[in-house]
Amino acid sequence: MKPSLLLLPLAAALLATGCASQQTTTMDSSADNQRLQQLEQENQQLRAQLGNEQPAPASQAPDLLPPNAKPGHCYARVVIPETYKTEMERVMVSAEDTKLTTTPARYETVQERVLVREATTKLITKPAEYRTVSEQVLVRPAYTTWKKGRGPIERIDQATGEIMCLVEVPAEYKTVQRKELVQPERVEEVAIPAEYKTIEVVKQVAPPQTHKQVIPAQYRDVPKQVKVTNADMEWREILCETNTTPDVVRRLQQALKNEGYDPTWVDGVYGSRTRAAVIAYQKDNNLPSGQLTMRTLNELGVKL
Fold this sequence. Notes:
By secondary structure, the protein is an alpha+beta fold.
């Protein structure tokens, strides 16, 4: 391909600008300079690429001119942004985990008999044991004597002439008490039994238990942007001096302002601030950017 063909896009843009030589200029010179600089940069990039490549067949040659161009219309290569689609992706929010819970031990109060003192023995001295006994003691033995009266054996007192009889007087006794030794003094070993007492104690009736609970992993579906096409450069019809009027620019500025992209002035002049508002609107709405395309006008509701 000849290097002179690299200047065709620039020439086409200049010719499109020249189509409006009889109309009042509505775009300031700074915008024209920026557009020309952009076209020159594109040509320089194409020139560098073609200088390192072999000539390609005509069927594979890049579109250096807009296809199906119409007379009196303006075209420019604009950036076609990347396109994306939203897919749902399942992501893990929290990994599987294990939770341990402990049930405390269970207790109750019970009564328990506890040893206070062990059984033992001790030696004790037991005194002698006595008992009191009663016995008859002879005070006077039995005897016989003569008394007045009559009886089996009798006699007459010679002195008095009285009849005397022989009487037996029984023995006389008296009751006396005395102590009698029953058990002599002795030393004995005495068993002292163990001593207990009942107390209340707290006893464990069920030990503590640990329970293992598996908490499954948690997932959720989140939207994910997946690229469908890459960014590219394409020829698109744009608004230029041949197909615009101050009224169109004024309606464009008002539409941008209504959408929140303030061009500063609504004066019908396509200046640098209006162009900056257009590019910001295009990028935010995923539109071809870099030039004021017809699609941008349609999206803003501006009709020619």
